[in-house]
Amino acid sequence: MRPFPFRRRAAPDVTAESNDADLITAVAARSTVALRILHQRHAPWLRARLARRCADADAIDDALQETFLAVWRSAGGFRGDNPAGWLWTIAVRRLISALRGRGARWVGSGIEPNDSSPVASAEDVVLLSVEHGDLGAALNRLSPELRAVIEATVLDGLTTKEAAGLLGIPEGTVKTRAMRARARLREELS
């Protein structure tokens, strides 16, 4: 008897013409070919969008690598109709995590970056301070629905349509919740 009684599903055949959903299904079945195609298709635009958020090329490279590792590990859990939005969500969260990890060495630790350190962009500084400042506390006091919309549209930089697809709610609901969240944040921070 085999040590593991279950069988892994065979990876479907994929080509460069396969759609993203088929590629993710193949990645879930452990197809390295599908992962390579997905990477070739999406890494360039992910890099470009992440570069608008961060001036540190090394942080972007780390975030991209971690993104595709996460895709490899969690492709079987993908349940959606927007693979590009799913990839972007993973990428931006990996970038924020990387920046927080780097910032945590500087914020409050007494260790200052030296002259050879990369200069953080204004957006990097803002993203790092969100968690630790008054804004982070105010965000934590929002209801989960409002916080999810603000995180998707403001912190992750998604459009209303992308956020609606990601959160599984209508675009109008995203707009309404964003308006309510901004009003509550203004009250909290004033």
Automatic annotation (TrEMBL):
Residues 134-185 form the RNA polymerase sigma factor 70 region 4 type domain. InterPro entries: RNA_pol_sigma-70-like, RNA_pol_sigma-70_dom, RNA_pol_sigma70_r2, RNA_pol_sigma70_r4_t2, RNA_pol_sigma_r2, RNA_pol_sigma_r3/r4-like, WH-like_DNA-bd_sf. It holds the Pfam family Sigma70_r2. Keywords: Sigma factor, Transcription, Transcription regulation. One of its GO terms (biological process) is DNA-templated transcription initiation. Residues 38-103 form the RNA polymerase sigma-70 region domain. One of its GO terms (molecular function) is DNA binding. Belongs to the sigma-70 factor family. ECF subfamily. This is RNA polymerase sigma-70 factor (ECF subfamily). The lineage of its organism: Bacteria, Bacillati, Actinomycetota, Actinomycetes, Streptosporangiales.
